[in-house]
Known about the structure:
Strand content: under 5%
Low-confidence stretches: 224-229
Distance between the termini: 44 Å
Mean pLDDT: 94
Radius of gyration: 17 Å
Shape: globular
Amino acid sequence: MADISIFTSLGLILTTLISVWVFFKASNHKKTLYGIIIWMLIVGVLGINGFYQKLGTFPPRFTLLLAPAILFILILFTNKKGKKFIDSLSLKYLIIVHSVRIPVEITLYHIFLGGLIPDLMTFEGYNYDIISGITAPIVYYFVFVKKIIGQKGLLLWNIVCLGLLINILVIAVLSAQTPFQQLAFDQPNIGVTYFPFVWLPTVIVPIVLFSHLASIRQLVVRKKAPNNV
């Protein structure tokens, strides 16, 4: 791998563990924690063995970083047990978990400096996702502590931050070395195919994505008031 410091790698590992722990606190469900840990181990082993780095396969190995988790999220949102699980989650922790997007963006910047992702994927380019991380604890404070921001404000924040997440996901996919690459041909997105950075698209991003979708469901479909969660 390129010149990526051990501190950057350790930072991503720690950020992943924090993401998983906060999400576990949101669910308070041990089976959920065990399932994520098993998935982390599988992905980690594949990453260490270079599985995601292989080119010329069908489907492209890069798509397997995101597709399984996204498919699982879709299943949860389309069956009765999944919806029950979603509605049982703590909205407080679903907001707090987005704070991990601050160290994620710092990690991405260092991966860029190491030549493994394009600048488009950093806050120097078109990645504004760090805004979500910075505002998450602020929103939490004014919703659950001061109770100044209400349900509508929290819903708006989730929608905007979900848009920021989708923006960087599109950039990341279009910058990867796949048949549908459209961006960053001089410095493509290959960093997330290496361990431990494989945990970014396979663990952290799904947790963040799911947390937004679950929050939006609770706020819109279930009509739950934030201060009652």
